[in-house]
Design goal:
Number of helices: 13
Structural class: mainly alpha
Helix content: 40-55%
Number of strands: 7
Strand order of the largest sheet: 5-6-7
């Protein structure tokens, strides 16, 4: 959700298979709206890579879809039915594989990375994942912009553990006070970065995080423009 997002067509396809009709834009909006609740769960020590965590997130995103809200006429989603659908959809999406699910390069990302690289900014991906991030960055045409890729499965610890950020700092040869980390989950990305002395920035495309005291940006492209403007 900083460089690449979910394949919205795939998500819509799996929802439709379980009787939920949704437009891609609605799925994108609902998933973003569900992130604060996911962050609160992760803040209690749950791993972001657990399947149960993903089921929890998908359930909350489905509950926020306009078609589901309208169907339930303000009563909230029917618990047992929503649990069943969320479990099925989440597992089907996971079974599709990380590369297939997370395959939508977000608008403006290649241009943003290119502009930062041209300005001499060192760039690294720090991701909680399953060992496929390096090959994914290659497949999406983004690897050449990056000085390092740090995958939690490879290094052995995941955000918010400060050690994964320290690994990234070492890989690119910079200091924490001169580094910013952009991510979509406060408890993982901002809290984790701060634990390593790194500046945490929260990506918040729809103003869902107005209760969090940290710098926010709508996208990686917006952050790149702000950083370059500040440098000038």
């Amino acid at each position: 959700n900083t460089l690449v997002g979910m394949d919205l067509a795939l998500v819509c396809e799996r929802l439709a298979a379980h009787g939920i009709v949704a437009e891609a834009a609605d799925v994108e909006r609902a998933e973003a709206a569900a992130r604060p609740e996911l962050s609160r769960l992760l803040g209690r020590g749950r791993s972001s890579e657990d399947r149960d965590t993903f089921v929890f997130h998908i359930r909350n995103a489905i509950a926020a879809l306009p078609s589901v809200v309208a169907r339930d006429e303000g009563r909230g989603a029917a618990g047992a039915e929503l649990d069943r659908i969320a479990h099925a959809v989440a597992h089907e999406l996971k079974d599709a594989g990380t590369r297939r699910l997370w395959s939508r390069v977000l608008p403006g990302v290649p241009e943003a990375l290119a502009s930062l690289q041209a300005a001499g900014v060192k760039l690294a991906v720090v991701s909680n994942s399953d060992g496929t991030i390096e090959s994914g960055m290659v497949a999406f045409g983004l690897r050449d912009f990056l000085d390092a890729v740090v995958d939690s499965r490879v290094v052995g610890f995941e955000k918010p553990d400060p050690r994964i950020f320290t690994a990234a700092l070492t890989a690119v040869g910079t200091r924490p006070e001169r580094t910013a980390h952009l991510g979509d989950l406060h408890a993982v990305d901002v809290v984790g970065a701060r634990g390593a002395g790194v500046h945490g920035v929260l990506v918040d495309p729809f103003d869902d995080w107005d209760d969090e005291r940290c710098p926010r940006t709508r996208s990686t492209a917006d952050l790149a423009r702000a950083l370059l403007a500040a440098r000038r």
